[in-house]
Structures are given as structure tokens and as C-alpha cells.
Amino acid sequence: MPITSKYSDEKVETILTEIAAVLDKHDASPELTLMIAGNVATNVINQNVAKAQRKAIAEKFAQALMSSLKD
Fold first, then answer.
1. Of 6, 15, 31, 54, whose Cβ has the fewest other Cβ atoms within 10 Å?
2. Residue 53: what are its φ and ψ, rounded to 5°?
3. How far apart are CA 8 and CA 50, in angstroms?
4. Phi then psi for 49, rounded to 5 degrees?
5. Could you tell me the superkingdom of the organism this chain comes from (predicted)?
């Protein structure tokens, strides 16, 4: 069963395009891009998720990332 999002594809694509433009502007390597993405995820979890739930949310995020990878 596909996962549905409460956010429109258009909104997600617009934000991704803007983020990609910033990374391109700074000539961010794939390694730096992944480091920044990880830092953003960590900050969002630490600032917006109750301490007792952080590990579970991080694990779900990691599982979603693994599921989204192409073979």
C-alpha cells in the first residue's frame, strides 16, 4: 500500500528545487549534501520531538530512507 502524504507533490518539489539550488550555489559535494541533510534531520527531531520519542522517530526515518532507495 503506497504511503500518502498530507503535502502536495508540487509543494515538496518546489522546496526540493530550492534546496538543490542552494547546494549547487555552494558546490556542495554528495558527502557534504548528505551531512547537511543528516544535520537537518537531527535538528528537526531534537527540536520538535519529545525526548522519549526521538529514538523511535529516528528509526522510522532511517527505515523510510532505506525503503526509498532504488535497487
1. 6
2. -105, -10
3. 27
4. -120, 135
5. Bacteria
Q: Which of helix, strand or coil describes residue 46?
A: helix
Residue pLDDT, tens place only, 25-56: 999 999 999 999 999 999 999 999 999 999 99
Pairwise CA distance, residues 45 & 53, whole Å: 9
Give the separation between CA 68 and CA 21, rounded to whole angstroms: 22
The span from the CA of 69 to the CA of 66, in Å, is 6
Q: 30-48 and 54-68 are packed helices; what angle lies between their axes, rounded to 10 degrees? A: 150
Considering the entire predicted model, what is its pTM? 0.81
Which contiguous run of DSSP H or E holds residue 9? helix 9-25
Q: How far apart are CA 38 and CA 66, in angstroms?
A: 14
